[in-house]
């Protein structure tokens, strides 16, 4: 027979799930002991075996990539585990009701409380893998301008006007590092484009690759109060030995291969 959920029972299930997935500190361990004494015992050793079995089945959570699961994610996973467990105890659609799988054995062995904690673990192991990159994985920090210019292999090249009149009167530079595979473009007085009509696109020419230049990113400009714009260079492919940086005007979102019929700026690298 199932027991009605209470705040204490919910907390006990959360702590049981934490015990077998991340471990508890002394205060949490003391709290769990007290709750087990009042809310009913749980087979913790069997629960740990189940967690290990689920871990092998679903894949190890990326514990080396993050110190701890964010609190809001933990709460959502625990809530989902309790709801799933409640559905299983009532025979709701989607709940495990038979077979000899891990979760089926849990349900028939020791009752709702134990099943709820194991269900929360199962969802945590699978859900944390799925949610990790979306919710917690920070984007790798792009190298700052100062970080690039201090590298020994940094290349700094001034912009020159190309055949398209948009480049007339524009100044600035390209700053690039092969070792960082990143860089920055600086523009002064580069006219903004109507994003519904066109975007700028950077191309990096590298004769060690093939005849097609490497896409360095699509961008538009919003000058600051000084009229200067800085745009990161994010090469889509590795660049080994750049000989020319060129800006083209393309359709919104850029192109895979440019016709190079509108080239407002170029920056040739001296050999």
Write the layout of secondary structure elements.
Blueprint: H1 7-21, H2 26-39, H3 44-58, H4 71-89, H5 102-110, H6 112-136, H7 145-149, E1 155-158, E2 160-161, E3 171-177, E4 182-188, E5 199-205, E6 214-219, E7 228-233, E8 244-250, E9 265-268
Antiparallel strand pairs: 1-3, 2-9, 3-4, 4-7, 5-6, 5-8, 8-9
Helix pairs in contact: 1-2, 1-3, 1-6, 3-6, 4-6, 5-6
Backbone structural class: alpha+beta
C-alpha termini separation: 81 Å
Strand line-up of the largest beta sheet: 2-9-8-5-6
Count of distinct strands: 9
Strand content: 15-25%
What oligomeric arrangement do these chains adopt? single chain
Low-confidence stretches: 54-67, 92-112, 128-139
What's this entry about, in short?
The protein has helices at 7-21, 26-39, 44-58, 71-89, 102-110, 112-136, 145-149; strands spanning 155-158, 160-161, 171-177, 182-188, 199-205, 214-219, 228-233, 244-250, 265-268.
Could you walk me through the main structural features you see in this protein, from its secondary elements to its overall organization?
This protein is an alpha+beta fold. It has 2 domains: 130 residues, no CATH class; 124 residues, Immunoglobulin-like, CATH 2.60.40. The protein is 38% helix and 18% strand. A 5-stranded antiparallel sheet has the order 2-9-8-5-6, with no helix packed on it. A 4-stranded antiparallel sheet has the order 1-3-4-7. The longest helix is centred in the middle third of the chain and has 25 residues. The protein starts with 6 loop residues before the first helix and ends with a strand. About 17% of the residues have low confidence.
